[in-house]
Amino acid sequence: MVHRVGYAPGVYDLFHVGHLNILRHARSQCDYLVAGVVSDEMAALAKGHRPVIPLTERLEIVRSVRYVDAAFVETVPDKVETWQQVRFDVLFKGDDWRDTERGRRLERDFAEVGVEVVYFPYTVHTSSTQLRRALDVLVTPQSGAL
C-alpha cells in the first residue's frame, strides 16, 4: 500500500484558525501528515524576530492537532535538507508563496527530487503578524497616557 506523506512547515506562532486550515487541508491530501515547526532561531532568521510562543509549546500545540500525525523541528533553512531527513512526497505552503521567486525556487528544487508543492489559500483575515501587532499595541504604553 502506497502512503503519501505530506509536510506542512510553519512557525505556528500564536496558533490561529489559519494554521488549523493549512493543517486540515494538508491532511485531506495525504495519508500521513508531518508538521514542520520552525525553530526559534530559524524563525528569527526568516522573519526578523523570535516567536512569541517558545518552540517547546508550539511543538506541543501542533502535535496535539488531530490532523497532524507527527511534528518535526525544522532547524535548517534549506527545505530539501529537511526533506532528506523527513522524506515527504508533497510539501504544503500558503498561496502567498505562489508565483514568487522563493516559491518558484522551492518548486524547482523539489521537482528535482520528485516532491510536489501544493498551495492552499492564505487566511487573509487572520495572521500571526496581525496578532503580534495587536499585542504590541496592547502592551506598549501610549504617549500621553497617565
Write a compact overview of the structure shown.
By secondary structure, this protein is of the alpha/beta class. The chain has helices spanning 17-27, 40-47, 55-63, 79-86, 101-111, 128-139; strands at 5-10, 32-38, 70-74, 90-94, 116-120.
Describe this structure in words.
The protein has 146 residues and is an alpha/beta fold. It is built from six helices and five strands. The protein has helices spanning 17-27, 40-47, 55-63, 79-86, 101-111, 128-139, and strands at 5-10, 32-38, 70-74, 90-94, 116-120. It has a five-stranded parallel beta sheet. Helix 5 (101-111) links the parallel strand 4 (90-94) and strand 5. The longest helix is centred in the last third of the chain and has 12 residues, at 128-139. The chain starts with a strand and ends in a 7-residue tail after the last helix. The model has no long low-confidence stretch (mean pLDDT 88).
